Amino acid sequence: MTDPRTPYPVRVDAALDPSLSRWLWLVKWVLLIPHVVVLFFLWVGFLVVGVVAFFAILFTGRYPRSLFDYNVGVLRWSWRVHHYGYWALGTDRYPPFTLADVPDHPAHLEVPYPERLSRGLIFVKWLLAIPHYLVLALFVGGGLWLGTRGGGDDGWNDAANAGVSLVGLLVLIAAIALLFTGRYPKPLFDFVIGMDRWALRVAAYTALMTDRYPPFRLDLGGTDPGSVPAGPVPPSPSGIPTAGPSAPVTAGR
């Protein structure tokens, strides 16, 4: 059995801008229209790639690397848009139009490539993820945060159409705080990112990108536990450093 403290392979990081605009969030829905259009087509490709990957895993036990990199890129692009937009409002830096990781951007997503995947699990992952869908229904209103709508972000309407969204409510509170104080409450940001991280882990699992079942754990804060380097190794009583766990490697970071 996997140690519950082991970092999940889907790593989601986000940094909170120290000085966010008080009013920019009011017009971000307009600024994000080009991304909504592009993401619509990217997510159509994501679904097609998922079908191809299903049969590739069924017959070979492997997810074709080029297809895997594409789908990771779509998740990464969507995450940058959501971090800028109304699922976090954590940055005023406009999202870049690229599938690749941008090292100096405040939002990052990495999924290590699996050399082998279970052929049997591909038939039941959607079923195994149902408990997570119930949790996500509360977090993001509807349970399907990233889907065929192209990861679009058209303001507060998405939350309203999907139902009650805890993420949408907390981000709205943060937006009001920004408007009147110029500050985003850090505990609020950490909680929002934890819920977004949970949704992205489930999205990667159901997209057949990992066989590791998502943990029922709210990892708060902008830094994913899987992206935290190991701390300094304390010396042993004899003065010789003891061996410690190696640090997880964040690809492209």
Order of helices and strands: EHHHEHHHHH
Sheet with the most strands, sense and barrel status: 2 strands, antiparallel
Shape by Cα distribution: globular
Unreliable spans are 142-163, 230-253
N-to-C terminal Cα separation, in Å?
Answer: 30 Å
The total number of structural domains is 1
Tally of separate helices: 8
Indicate the proportion of strand residues.
under 5%
Radius of gyration over all CA atoms, rounded: 19 Å
**What's the average pLDDT?**
83
In helices, the fraction of residues equals: 40-55%
User: What's the count of strands?
Assistant: 2
Q: Can you walk me through this structure?
A:
This protein is mainly alpha-helical and 253 residues long. It has one domain (11-215). The protein contains eight helices and two strands, in the order βαααβααααα. It has helices at residues 28-31, 33-60, 65-84, 125-128, 130-141, 157-162, 166-181, 186-206; strands spanning 11-14, 107-110. It has a two-stranded antiparallel ribbon.
